[in-house]
Amino acid sequence: MSKSLYSKDLIKSQYWLDTPLADMSKEQWESICDGCAKCCLHKFIDDQSVNEEDDFAPTDVLREGEEILFTNIACHLLHTKTCACTSYEKRSTLVPDCVTLTKENLESIFYMPKSCSYRRLHEGRGLASWHPLLNKGKKAKMHESRISVRGRTVNEHDILYDEFEDYVVTWPENDID
Length: 177
Ligand code: SF4
Ligand code: SF4
Known about the structure:
- The protein is α+β, with helices and mostly antiparallel strands and 177 residues long.
- The protein has one domain (8-173).
- Helices cover 16% and strands 10% of the residues.
- The chain has five helices and four strands; from the N terminus they run ααββαααββ.
- Strands 1, 2, 3 and 4 form a four-stranded mixed β-sheet that branches.
- The site of one iron/sulfur cluster has 15 residues, from helix 4.
């Protein structure tokens, strides 16, 4: 999850309409993040054909027949109401698995939910009507539209690893527009 900044000047410029992701400044890039926190949910790749021992192996591609399954299990550093990271500056140290999407690792976009605003722009779908940049920098419409994870998660420290599959959910793949 990026650190979201929605300055008035950026909002007014509507830079996302004509600036490719690759050409965005740091501030422009970070403001594309809608703050939904879906990327702070645990997920795994479902593929019945892989070997048991490979089940939880890291991957950087999605192969044919594989599917990403989201759970509602959230990183322990997520603030479940604001959907913000409570240790944003130290997240990479505290949570080594935390993936921050950058211009350099855009190929990892397949990990992101369909509503992820980076993915939407990458796929030419534009920003959704609920995005804070289209709502005076406010996240209220995103929360009201049930795009964010607010109020729908369990803390990773409160569940047993063996029960992981009991928490698979489909709502993270929902999108509007
Ligand atoms: S899923 Fe995408 S838009 Fe949503 S918080 Fe994560 S990086 Fe930001
Ligand atoms: S450390 Fe956890 S809460 Fe913070 S951005 Fe990464 S996954 Fe999200």
